[in-house]
Write a structure and sequence with these properties.
The structure holds 2 protein chains of 2 kinds.
Chain A lengths: L1 H13 L1 H45 L4 H5 L3 E3 L20 E4 L4 E5 L16 H17 L4 H6 L1 H7 L4 H33 L7 H29 L5 H30 L5 H17 L17 H36 L4 H13 L2 H28 L50 H23 L5
Antiparallel strand pairs in A: 1-2, 2-3
Helix pairs in contact in A: 1-7, 2-4, 2-7, 4-7, 4-8, 4-9, 4-12, 7-8, 8-9, 8-12, 8-14, 9-11, 10-11, 11-13
Chain B lengths: L1 H13 L2 H43 L11 E3 L19 E3 L17 H4 L6 H17 L4 H6 L1 H6 L5 H35 L5 H31 L3 H30 L5 H25 L25 H47 L4 H12 L4 H24 L16 H4 L1 H16 L4 H4 L25 H27 L5
Antiparallel strand pairs in B: 1-2
Helix pairs in contact in B: 1-7, 2-4, 2-7, 4-7, 4-8, 4-9, 7-8, 8-9, 8-12, 8-17, 9-11, 10-11, 12-17
Classes of the chains: A mainly alpha, B mainly alpha.
């Protein structure tokens, strides 16, 4: 068996098509290194600018708690150090959350990308593994069995006292190792370029996530090798085998994820901007109607009789805006999640999802921003409310709007700048969640698919007529 | 002879497994994609109609010209069901504001933000990847395979020239590739017409024809590529691998690399820094605004009188209209200068950023110049009016509209001398000091009796602005720029001609044994 494996590796590695394709893949990995090093430092700079802006604003307003409370912050999450694994169209998603201590006002797009250039898959690992390496897997395995039959070597091999199981295992391991070598060399090249060009940092967490990405990639490639062996053991001519595999590949790599998105858009409908506005207006009117008319008046006295109603009105206004926005963005997230789930019938869909999960980009990145904005606002709110409670000179009726407040209804005392909670603490330095998730589900699905495919491939080979 | 050979080629292709696979896959995918996107288009169209209607209702409620800020909607492109392009990616409504020139559109017609961000699975994607791959699969063994089976020798004994043989093989495969594209498009058009009731205008039919032509032209480039590889390499299994490599590089890798490399080679300025500058100038302008308001406490005098500023203490500060009017005018003139300076600063920053963006997209164009899929995208997005320049046209139309609106009101005397600001309609009652005093007394009594200001304010004293005072917004979703269609198609045709010529030249010296 070892001999078969060794021969298969050598055969593959020395094949012209393998060499060309491998060179292309190495080139892609190298470009990934260069492109994402530059991109990471650009995004890091954007993050620095946004942090400086928030800090400056905050420092200027620490002399007065009330001014601090209505200060609008623009929360730009730190860039993911692992965007090179799956960029997840991050440069077209909403990426800045607008909030103050009372309300969250939605999202902005602040990207360093050119609108004139259409949305294309970027050159991340998701692309290199899902498209290029799977194509390589097909190219090396399509003639593993039927090619040997045509050359007549299959009969020679079977003339030796070697079982078909061993033949199968030898071929499978040999092919997978050949591709894995190419993949790992590319990964090493990619990471070396990051170190040389001062790209994304490679620390404990990122290395661990990269390790997961490598493992998942190898599982995916193994699936395609097995598919190649299966088809190769079911056809007589290598050209037919390749045609069948290519049709399979193009359906799995392009058509299924694309159709999944189209279906998800039909199933989960997202409200239109006009509907969201109409709902907000209606619910704001309800809030207005539920308090007496004089709630709106302000005569400069924070202890006036109508102030509790005024506070109630503003609080419910804030709640309405947040609730409507949240349900809108959660519908968006659900739609995108369904699209991903539907794409799970394709291995490329599985790794696209798990890579985005690992690197916290795409829908995962947006969801994290959404959750962290929620958390941060409530932390900030709690902090300010506690400070206000300690001040005996206010009515302790906490309210405010967008850039608006009634002087004196909230504490005007100064606060130490270092004590104010910051949004940056909700992300780690590398832009990944503080506690990273393990893509175990993805791994289990891929392993199960591998096992199934291996059985089919073996049965096909066992029944193959070597003549 | 040619006809006989062509007929033979077509007949042979029609009976192969790969033709059946191509037929089923391409037709199904086209029908599914156009159908789903057609439904999506209808949803967006309904949403557009609703939104415009709601906006028209709002416009009827304008009371003073200073409150007018109409929203201009961009209709969805009906041909976006063939190629999504940028139709869903960018915003589709612009609110016209006094102080700023429209720079970008916001809002959407119920398109998922997270979905619009992904490359859509439309006819373009299907043609660019699936059709081109089948183009290769149809011809990779046309020469080398026939040579392997010995058929080539038999055929050349008929006395047909190699040119005839080669062109029959090319045309036969091209016809067979056209069948699934045309079938898929026809089936989906029939479905759209009869089930979704989508009717195209003649101009749009022409564009649909253009889409079909561009798709077929693009497919034939790959038919020619497969044929060329088949001549260049002796064995058909090597030919397909060579063709596949070229396909992978030009269709899949180059566009992505070009995009990434353009971002690295000509980087953009931080967008965040620009918007931060904008917010900085806003804070600055607000400070100056407050200073002016302190100096001329009449700043809300006559300017907002029809709406909420009645609450303001300042309204009651003046005993005579003349004095209040003078202060109000000084305030607005001062404010105009502040806002003008701010607008200039921002415009300068954005102009530089736009120049950098144009540079980056030029780099991308240059890097992707050898990729046929790049040109197909340009051709299809131009044909279906879903390219970036259509979006730019919309922005341009909105800017023109704003200028026209301001002009229109200035002509009617609603404005002060400067372009940017305007007073409310001057009510003769307001100018009369005695009437003015009466009115202030009336407001005061109403407020004191516990009424809300909006219960006694508004149209009672002022004639509302008629909706017919607003100029109409003219923008058509369908506007094909023939130049941007002909160029990419021309390049595709040149690529096709080059591939055919090279293949034929090699075939003339081909050893048929």
């Amino acid at each position: 068996m070892l001999t078969i494996t060794k021969r298969q590796i050598l055969d593959s590695l020395l094949d012209a098509k393998f060499i060309f394709m491998a060179l292309l893949i190495l080139l892609a990995f190298a470009s990934n290194g260069v492109i994402f090093s530059a991109q990471y430092s650009q995004l890091k700079e954007d993050y620095r600018v946004s942090e400086a802006e928030n800090s400056n604003l905050m420092r200027g307003r620490c002399d007065n708690l009330q001014r601090l409370a209505i200060m609008e912050q623009r929360i730009l999450p730190p860039p993911s150090a692992l965007a090179f694994i799956a960029e997840g169209n991050s440069d077209t998603l909403p990426n800045v959350s607008l909030l103050n201590a009372f309300n969250r006002y939605g999202y902005e797009f602040q990207h360093r990308s050119d609108d004139r250039i259409p949305v294309l898959p970027s050159l991340d690992w998701n692309f290199i593994v899902g498209i290029l390496l799977t194509l390589l897997a097909i190219l090396v395995s399509y003639n593993a069995v039927c090619g040997e039959r045509r050359d007549g070597t299959l009969r020679l091999v079977l003339a030796h006292p070697v079982s078909r199981l061993k033949l199968f295992l030898g071929k499978y391991i040999g092919l997978l190792l050949a591709i894995t070598i190419c993949f790992l060399v590319g990964v090493a090249l990619n990471l070396v370029i990051f170190v040389l060009l001062d790209g994304p940092p490679l620390d404990g967490t990122t290395i661990q996530q990269i390790g997961w990405a490598v493992l998942l990639s190898i599982c995916t490639l193994s699936l395609f090798v097995l598919a190649g062996l299966t088809v190769s053991s079911m056809t007589q001519r290598p050209a037919v085998s390749l045609v069948v595999l290519l049709v399979f590949w193009i359906i799995v790599a392009f058509a299924l994820p694309g159709l999944g998105r189209l279906i998800a858009e039909q199933v989960v409908e997202v409200p239109t901007q006009a509907e969201v506005q109409a709902e907000t207006a209606e619910r704001l009117q309800q809030a207005e109607d539920s308090v007496p008319n004089y709630a709106n008046f302000w005569n400069g006295d924070p202890f006036a009789q109508n102030i509790p109603y005024r506070a109630e009105l503003w609080t419910s206004r804030n709640e309405v805006i947040m609730a409507v926005n949240d349900s809108y963005f959660e519908a968006q997230i659900n739609q995108a999640s369904l699209a991903k789930l539907l794409a799970f019938i394709s291995p490329q869909g599985i790794i696209a999802d798990s890579f985005q999960n690992l690197s916290s980009t795409g829908v995962y990145g947006f969801r994290r921003l959404h959750e962290n904005a929620k958390r941060y606002r409530s932390i900030l709110n709690r902090f300010l409310v506690t400070r206000d409670a300690a001040d005996s000179g206010t009515p302790h009726l906490v309210y405010g709007g967008r850039g608006f407040f009634d002087p004196g209804t909230f504490s005007q005392k100064p606060v130490s700048y270092s004590a104010v909670p910051r949004a940056a603490s909700l992300w780690s330095e590398t832009g990944l969640p503080v506690e990273t998730e393990m893509p175990l589900i993805h791994l289990i699905i891929l392993l199960a698919a591998n096992l199934n495919m291996a059985m089919i491939a073996f049965i096909a080979l066992a029944r193959y007529d070597p003549r | 002879m040619f006809i006989v050979l062509l007929w033979k080629e077509i007949r042979e292709h029609l009976m192969t497994f790969r033709f059946a696979a191509a037929l089923v896959t391409i037709t199904l995918l086209i029908v599914c994609s156009v159908w789903f996107l057609g439904e999506d288009y209808q949803r967006r169209l309904n949403s557009y109609l609703q939104a415009s209607e709601a906006a028209a209702l709002l416009e009827r409620e304008y009371v003073v010209p200073s409150e007018i800020s109409p929203t201009l909607f961009r209709p969805p492109s009906p041909l976006s069901m063939f190629t999504q392009g940028e139709d869903r990616r960018f915003g589709n409504s612009i609110q016209i504001k006094r102080w700023e020139v429209p720079r970008e559109a916001t809002g959407n017609y119920g398109t998922g933000l997270l979905m619009a961000a992904q490359a859509p699975f439309d006819l373009f994607t299907i043609v660019a990847t699936v059709v081109s791959l089948f183009g290769i699969l149809l011809t990779y063994d046309a020469i080398s395979g026939e040579r392997e089976r010995g058929l080539l020798r038999v055929q050349s004994s008929y006395g047909a020239s190699r040119l005839t043989l080669y062109s029959a093989k090319f045309l036969g495969a091209a016809v067979c590739l056209t069948i699934p594209i045309v079938l898929g498009l026809t089936a989906s058009l029939v479905a759209l017409n009869f089930i979704l009731d989508i009717v195209f205008t003649p101009g749009e039919w022409l564009a649909v024809g253009g889409v079909a032509f561009a798709s077929v032209l693009y497919g034939t480039v790959f038919v020619a590529l497969g044929l060329g590889c088949s001549v260049l390499v002796r064995r058909s299994s090597a030919a397909i691998v060579l063709a596949l490599l070229v396909w992978t590089i030009t269709v899949v890798v180059v566009p992505s690399v070009a995009q990434g490399a353009a971002g690295t080679l000509s980087p953009l300025d931080s967008q965040f820094a620009i918007s931060s500058l904008e917010r900085g100038t806003e804070a600055d302008a607000r400070k100056k605004h407050e200073e002016l308001a302190d100096k001329y406490p009449a700043y809300e005098f006559g300017y907002w009188t029809s709406s909420f500023s009645i609450k303001s203490e300042r309204f009651f500060k003046y005993d005579s209209w003349e004095q209040g009017y003078r202060d109000a005018e000084s305030f607005i003139r001062g404010l105009e200068l502040v806002m003008q300076a701010r607008a200039d600063t921002i415009r300068q920053a954005y102009r530089e950023s736009e120049a950098r963006k144009a540079e980056q997209s030029e780099t991308e164009q240059l890097l992707a110049v050898f990729s046929p899929s790049h040109h197909l995208r340009h051709a299809l997005t131009s044909l279906t009016s879903t390219n970036y320049s259509r979006y730019e046209d919309y922005l341009e139309a909105a800017r023109r509209y704003r200028a026209e609106l301001l002009d229109n009101f200035r002509r009617k005397g609603y404005f002060s001398d400067n372009v940017l600001s305007f007073f409310s309609q001057r009510d003769p009652e307001e100018i009369d000091d005695a009437k003015y005093g009466e009115r202030v007394a009336y407001y005061r009594s109403q407020l004191e009796s516990g009424k809300r200001y909006d219960e006694f304010m508004g149209p009672k004293f002022l004639e509302p602005v008629s909706a017919s005072d607003l100029p109409p917004f003219e923008y058509s979703f369908f506007g094909m720029d023939s130049g941007s269609v002909i160029w990419p198609l021309g390049i595709l045709a040149i690529e096709l001609a080059l591939l055919l010529a090279t293949g034929l030249a090699v075939f003339q010296r081909y050893d048929i044994r």
